[in-house]
Amino acid sequence: MCASVKYGSRGPALIPRMKTKHRIYYITLFSVVLLGLIATGMFQFWPHSIESSAEWSLDRRSVHDAPLVRIPMSSPIPERGDLSCRMHTCFDVYRCGYNPKNKIKVYIYPLQRFVDEVGVPISSTGLSREYNDLLSAISDSDFYTDDVTRACLFIPSTDVLNQNSLRIRETAQALAMLPRWDKGMNHLLFNMLPGGPPDYNTALDVPRDRALLAGGGFSTWTYRQGYDVSIPVYSPLSAEVDLPERQPGPRRYFILSSQTAIHREYRVELERLKEENGEALLLLDKCSNLSQGLASVRKRCYKGQVYDYPQILQESSFCVVLRGARLGQATLSDVLQAGCVPVIMADSYILPFSEVLDWKRASVVIPEEKLPEMYTILKSIPHRQVEEMQRQARWFWEAYFSSMKAIGMTTLQIINDRIYPYAARTYEEWNNPSVVKWSSVNSPLFLPLIPPRSPGFTAVVLTYDRIESLFRVITEISKVSSLAKLLVVWNNQNKSPPEESLWPKVTVPLKVVRTKENKLSNRFFPFDEIETEAVLAIDDDIIMLTSDELQFGYEVWREFPDRLVGYPGRLHLWDHEMGKWKYESEWTNEVSMVLTGAAFYHKYFNYLYTYKMPGDIKNWVDAHMNCEDIAMNFLVANITGKAPIKVTPRKKFKCPECTAIDGLSLDQTHMVERSECINKFASVFGTMPLKVVEHRADPVLYKDDFPEKLKSFPNIGSL
Amino acid sequence: MQARKKYVLLGLCMCCWLLLYYWGGLQERLLGLITHKRGEVARPWPSWLDRDLLPGYADQAELQNDGGSGDSPRQRRQSWAGIYKDSRCRMDTCFDFARCQGQSGFRVYIYPPEKGERVSESYHKILTSVVESRYYTSDPREACLFVLGIDTLDRDQLSTQFVPNVDERIRGYPLWNDGRNHVIFNLYSGTWPNYTEDLGFNVGQAILAKASLNTEHFRPGFDISIPLFSKEHPQKGGERGWLVRNTVPPRRKYLLMFKGKRYLTGIGSDTRNALHHIHNGKDIVSLTTCRHGKDWEKHKDTRCDHDNQEYERFDYQELLHNSTFCLVPRGRRLGSFRFLESLQAACIPVLLSNGWELPFSDVIQWNQAVIEGDERLLLQVPSTVRAVGIDRVLALRQRTQMLWEAYFSSVDKIVLTTLEIIKDRVYSHISRNKFMWNALPGGLLVLPEYSTHLAHYPFYYLNLGISPGQEFTAVIHATSPLVSQSQPIMKLLQVVSKSKYCSQIIILWNSEKPPPHRSKWPPMPVPLIITDGRRKTSSRFLPHAAIETEAVLSLDEDTVLLTSEIDFAFHVWRSFPERIVGYPPRSHFWDPVKKAWGYTSKWTNEYSIVLTGAAFYHRYYHHLFSHYLPSSLRVLVDRTSNCEDILMNFLVSSVTNLPPIKVAQRKQYKEMPTLQVSFCPSIESGTKTAPWVNPEHFTQRQECVSTFASWFGYMPLVHSQFRLDPVLFKDHVSVLRKRYKDLERV
């Protein structure tokens, strides 16, 4: 091609020497080509046309257009599943590799229609609606890759959800014919109805080498823990019927049994329970007078009375899910959808997604043998717990049972968690419904520690130009015995800090950090110079705190290392007239904030403030030059769920320098601004995280009738 | 020539056209790459034209009928027991639940030791733990679970502690019953060179509590994986974790460390032989030595000398203290001492032990405390741990400490955890959920008999996003008969019932005289319940069914309080529902002369106990007091009619690792007459008629502190230096502004 381009550069020079006849001929030709080019260009650069054309060629096809593959009789059959398979023996991790997103890549084989030598398909149904939904969901997800060489997990497009519709031997052969089968390594099969009459195996009977099985109805003997994934049996009713979520609480019936295929032995026992406990139990069965078909699926009867299924499930606190021929029951899904607490009686059954879901919080599992004791067992569960279980059951359905997509994504996430265990989802993420996730707190400093007194704390003084007052503060703080270091954050870019010789002499290291911009958030920067856990944030005008008060504050912080421990306390109030939050600095009986003009806190909160502050709060504070302390209080309260601790009695915290310009109007605008901050932050956090308390911390012997000289902290509260 | 030109021009046009076409195509691809849409655009699972016509995977009637109801369930259950034995044992088939359904509940029996039988130190500790646990019975008839007297810990035939002929001996036991309901503890199995899982005798249907269990041999829901522990592992109490502070940034001097043997041959050598590859001498220190065993020099390779030299340069303990992550590769067996060592040292374990069933994996969520690596991906380990963010390091590290202290720090805890896991299986509908096992304070301190509901415990309010209830129950301990209407208890009843948070009052009648008739008590705005305490001091902490609120206010009959004091303390308790919140403080101290713990009632600058003669706490502690503590301690309390408050403080502090909280009170509890009295250590402050003027009372309390500390195995009490006062307490502001002004009246 390069060669022809070279020729082309000489091309135009040739034209003038041509004959007219030829010229016309060439011009015509040229125009035609040019037009063609433009048309092609238009076609190329018109995005819509490309997509639609791609869709046309790829998507607008029928399942029946899938290529037909004939399986030779002699085609190899995989080995039966190996019960000893585990991720480290039968799974090739090298295919998944290290990747920064910690996400496995999943490849789906293109659809093929397998038939045996005489042309009979291997499955009576072919691709089912559910399996198609599952595969489309996976192909739309982040897990999907079309690049077979980059894939970590392979999913055959052969539908094996229901073993009954399969020809076992031929299905197995079809699997083995897949181009990347390689003894089933890293292949994942989805099956919901395993086994067949008469003894119904609890895992898919199709020989499958080392393939992973996501199966519904595993028993403890067929389930390879940590390798297979136990999945629910999908109930198509989920898509058909819309059951709105009901508030948890007591229901009309206590126990309800809705299954139609309950073994005679169990039905006898259930009926005995019904006799003993009467109306609390409702035992439903098939309706004998209705004709077969869809209608019968949606109706249940008791003594001639007809009930709608699954709506009736919402009328009961507990719903029985007994095993049938198989362990996994689609009823479980219906029951969860109705927010009814399942009472699962299926010995040896591996509950769906039990690797990650805590079923004890959403269901009651009772050994089949104990069916006669069911009523007593259920009665012993506290009401509040039943309500929690109802909520939990519904949440499980919504998140993990409601659609084939949910089932597929959960399965892949579980496998993903095994391959990247260090990035696995936590118990809370799997099990807490969103309501709980929203209101609960999991403090990052959850371990109850009382850190040792040494090495003390680092005092961080934010200053601009009040040098005299700053020096007084430094002198005062340096008297505190647990002070480890002084860090002066010099926020004035126009002026250099005074010479070293002018600074007060202190025994601890003193370090001055000059900032690039005069921003309030500089005071909360996690400077490397802060080597202690405890930070004392202090303004350059707080000269009235005694060293006893500061030392005591540090001692209190040691007992509450996850809280803000500060001196002046403030309160937020709900203003009913205005319908918004209000800031309060008066002498109140309550406290919900402490000012960071003088407060101890953990250095971790500096890191959170600087890097994890929600929304635009940080910029907002810097722009308004106000409320950095309120923001800090919000942040800490939100992440720990705890109130700050105000220490020592109230003092007058006005600096002598400011009293001169301190006017009423200034004070009022200040209050309005602070109130605005609270409202702004509450809206960014989406909630009001501040906690109100009525206590403050004083030394044990504060104001007690006791010799002052024997008190650890005698000089407290003096003005 | 003409033809050539024609072709050239035509060729040129073709070229342009092709170029444009390809360029366009290329651009489109680039665009796709940038927007990450390539995968979807290129070849998604097609959206079939006829997808709505696809059949369902199963007919709904088929789903509901489920192939009929199968065989008789009773027969099936019976036949299972015959099929699923030995290596396929499960609780359903190999455990006799009927043995545990008796009156006595979950009881564990230990076979008596045979004459001349020598038991290793570790096994002795295990047996002691069982004997001292609340589940021990000496009567095999009421036992649910059996523990062998034969030491089965070390089943390495080359070991000196190997016990021969176990098979024959256990078969001789009349109760053996093919191992049903037996637990067999084991730390080492198999021997050189393969270290198989074989114990050298047939365990039959016994539950294996074994270290280094392999997932393939592990019978899920039946066996229990326990950690490997050394013979120096303490019987009880145990050292606390090494983490004392959460430094930020949390990275330590070294990122990742390993120091240990390198096997030149045999099982486990693959992994250990490769460890030196990740050593970089800077932040990753992975040191191996060839020096182990007798004939290491025979197998010596070229690296050995250099490695051995490097090995000596670093100290293992120093590395443990200063590493963020610690490699825990398999040894000859899957588990190693290293695992518990790094857990205690808050050095986040990075496991390289494929197929290891982690200790107590039934209940513990290990992925929140360790990094589970893969032996095959050793070289990825450095980049994996480097990518762990600071929040995660903080969380993992704290969790190692939580797990260490909850389940591993002593043999007692390891054995009790094993028993509790089995108990949870036996009584599965009264058992702990995963959350209880994995949240503070750990599963051993959560007794599911009390409740299976999380909100009924004092520990989980924040996790559940709820706050404690708004009401309390007052429990008044009455010991003196009712003779006059001006007795202190009458005043107390008035004061308590006036609190708007009080929902009921229970009088625990512990007097010699029978309780007076209802009409003798004053009319109350809240229900008044009189219960008989049977003159036992410990009865004040019995889990009375009548207590309906989460908060309990425990009171002595002669307590003098104000309603506002009660209200304030209750407010404080709602902020600290897991602690004791009370008024009069006491303290413990270490007496270096006597080398014993001491108790003092002096006024001091710190305290570690608040007396339960007037204190708020969660009602769950009643349950723990009566069912978690051994009866021996409660007997001591009843015999001396003393120390119940100290014991309660021990209990709560051992659960929370935190001190109690003292709140403000108007004047000193029980009206201390003078300072001198409170200074005199031999006399408990109080009025002349009270029992605590008795010097013996105080000596008893000293002894109690020592006795309790020895049962707990450590000193759980923690000192505090503050008390909580109302926000405006004694501030210079008008009393009209103050909510708790009564507290300041003299």
Contiguous low-pLDDT stretches of chain A (5 residues minimum) are 1-15, 47-57, 655-664
Q: Termini separation of chain A (Å)?
A: 92 Å
β-strand percent of chain B reads 5-15%
Individual helix count of chain A = 21
Helix content of chain A: 25-40%
Mean pLDDT over all positions of chain A: 89
Find the count of extended strands of chain A (DSSP E, 2+ residues).
Answer: 25
The radius of gyration of chain A is 36 Å
For the sheet with most strands of chain A, the description reads: 7 strands, mixed
Q: What is the radius of gyration of chain B computed over CA atoms, rounded to a whole number of angstroms?
A: 34 Å
The span between the termini of chain B is: 125 Å
> Which segments of chain B are poorly predicted (pLDDT under 50) over 5 or more consecutive residues?
32-42, 669-689
Strand order of the largest sheet of chain B: 16-15-14-17-22-18-23-24
Mean pLDDT of chain B: 88
> How would a textbook summarize the main sheet of chain B?
8 strands, mixed
Global shape of chain B: globular
Oligomer: heterodimer
The percent of residues in helical segments of chain B reads 25-40%
How many helices of chain B in DSSP terms? Answer: 24
Question: Structural class, from secondary structure content of chain B?
Answer: alpha/beta
Main location (chain A): endoplasmic reticulum
Enzyme class (chain A): transferase
Membrane topology (chain A): Single-pass type II membrane protein
Coiled coil (chain A): 256-283
